[in-house]
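User: Can you fold this complex?
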Amino acid sequence: MGEAPEYPLAEKQPGRLKTPSGLPFEEITLEAVLAGRVGMEDLRVTAEALELQAEIARRAGRRRLAENLARAAELTRLPEERILAIYQALRPGRSSREQLHALAAELERDYRAVRTAALLREAAEAISPGPAPPGEAG
Amino acid sequence: MLSKRSEARARRPIQRDSFIEEWPEAGLSLFDSPYDPPATLRIAGGRVVELDGRAESDFDWLDRFIARHAIDLESAPEAMALEAEELARRLTDISVPRSELVRLCGGLTPARLTQVVGRLNVVEMMMALQKMRARRTPANQAHVTNRKENPALLAADAAEAAERGFAELETTVGVSRYAPLNALAVLVGSQTGRGAALTQCAVEEALGLRLALLGLTSYAETLSVYGTEEAFRDGDDTPWSKAFLASAYASRGIKVRFTSGSGSEALMGHAGGRSMMYLEARCLMVVKGAGSQGVQNGSISCIALPESLPGGVRAVLGENLMAAMLDLEVASGNDAMASHSEIRKTAKLMLQFLPGADFIFSGYSAVPREDNLFGGGNFDAEDLDDYNVLQRDMQVDGGLRPVGEEELLAVRRRAAQALQAVFAELGLPPIRDEEVEAAARARSSEDMPERDAVADLAAAEAFLRRGGNAVEVIRALARRGFRDIAGKILALEKLRVSGDYLQTSALLLPGGRVLSAINDPNDYRGPGTGYRLSARRWAEIAALPQAADPRAVGRGTGAGPCLRSAGEAARSEDPLDVVIAVGPAFGGALEATLLGLPHRSVLEALMEGVREEGLRPRVVKIHHTADCGFIGHAGAQLSGSGVAVGIQSKGTTVIHRRGLAPLDNLELFPQAPNLTLETYRRIGRNAARYAKGAPVTPLPVEIDNTARLKYIVKTTILHRREIEQVVEGRPPEEMHWDG
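Assistant: Here's the predicted assembly.
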């Protein structure tokens, strides 16, 4: 398993971290919070940080965790309501195959969420009623 | 008709547990159901086309998801070619490193994973878990809830739990609308003292995500998975919805672990005749495929179901091990009542406690059982001292530390005060001073004053609606003089920007640092490797608040010396003379017996007894021996009547007579703890009656089975003191009684 000298990022390489609004990590201080310069919207992980974490996970031999974090990086671009709506759509019996494919297309088009879209397409073939076309699982 | 002994056994708590035989068709077997599939894997064209006896065209949701996401196609051919027994051996072989096993286990199918674990006995499973858990340092999670959903009490209990070392605090709700206030209270409490715990609030997914987004929680473990498609469907989820949700939480910097555990499918009526362990293996591979960093398993809320079956407790450990083999963080259950029997509950715990798990409990009830809204933990708040003792006994790091009463009260009170300030600043229904004080000292919510539930619920809903969040909490705390707590909450919230605790098996250390399987990977390779208690941690575990300084035992009772020297003792010729021979520390270096009876009073009682029979007591101090028999024997040589009472400083007493061998006697009272002043008086009387040749009924000796248990430590120390006073060759000394 690979070494990760840069981990934890907050301790070892805080200079590589920023808030979604672009504020450097080290400027998140109590003074800044009290002065109103940092709000809840700043205390959120960025796609870049998630990609760094995904890379650390990959080097540690955790491919699936890395894949999850890479999907998460994509989902940083989605508003909460969209996330909850997609989650609902993936629950049993909620969506037709076409609806899930349409959601996948939306994810790619509006949010550059290619990996998440692939997950939805796979779900479309697996969980929606009707026989799956042969060979789709690969 | 039962024998009387059986009747006594029938009243024992173990009889209230349920025990059944296996019934594979109903999913009521642990390993090797006749309906379990064979372990097979066929790969063609870079993908799985047959999994555990099922062709791709027949795959259900789980097969499909596992085939696509959870089997490492590179290591699979090699791993599946190994006999299950060979892999089982490697798990217990210290020369095979964890990383190699993780690589191989990644290529197994659920059926083969089950077979491998099934080859291990319970000790081998523990050896394997010690090596395979992801994080080197073990830790622990607490449940913090209360029946009245009193926020001040939640904050105080959370603060105490964090202070005791729990690395994660899980709360939940009775009424779900309370959730934002409960999460808020636990957050503030968690960062009051050491400031080293992540928190969560177990509620429905959408609300859970919302609380996390508001910074009121930092992790979630509500993502349940099941081992059959039917059970998944009843749980209203799919492997894909769970995988999506895992990414959704991560996208907001929230730690997630999934939940699974044997028995849930059988309980839901959807086991399909498969063994619990095979279904759990499927669950775990879905968890892994979804990209979760970890899982809580070990049957969880169904624990009494596997435990009703033969081998159930072993199998539950097997579940934990399977998760570790898949390189998942394991929060290893122990979170629901596993038995009515304290013996059985503790025995079960040892299987995770001794090898260590990432989180030994996925919910130790840090509150009394009746306040636990998760249904009551296997261990609860009143077992905490027992738990600390177990750590100390076994030299095992169970994740907790003993904390003194003063420190506990201080941190509890401060947490309640901090929350009181936050409520006031944020316009939430006030927490009164009497609530703060009650929360600091409360045993349970019974001790809490009533609150206006309608007002609390309305405030909670409004708080959520307007998006009340952690930053407001930080500001409120700082404004009201709780700057340190504000700083610690901010340090925690900052970590959602770095994502550091999204790595496998992460926990929070004081100072906002993260420890995980990345910077603390389990490197166990046998003795001298892996997790070892540091000198500092061991000192912390060993230092129970109730542990006494043995050097201080028996010192300074305040009774003061009661004997004065009157020169060397001579043999008396007076037939009415009865010697009371005392040990070398008696009435000097030591002042009281084992039971705490002042030597002064004991001597008084003995002398009074002798006098009651018309004889004359004479006190002699023996210096050359500390042994009770020899003390009595030496006294008898000096006694005019030939009879002497010998007494050690700890209170052990003998009646001796000249002519008897030193270790022979007329009567011996070895159990000093059972001796009262009245017994000493009667010993004096009996000695006098022996001296005058009157008939004597020996005093009945009381049997107390716990005497040795209670007093052996003090006995050892007092006896050592006595021996310290021994002066070889120094003759007996006549003593004046200052009574």
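DSSP finds 28 helices and 20 strands in chain B. The two ends of chain B are 62 Å apart (CA to CA).
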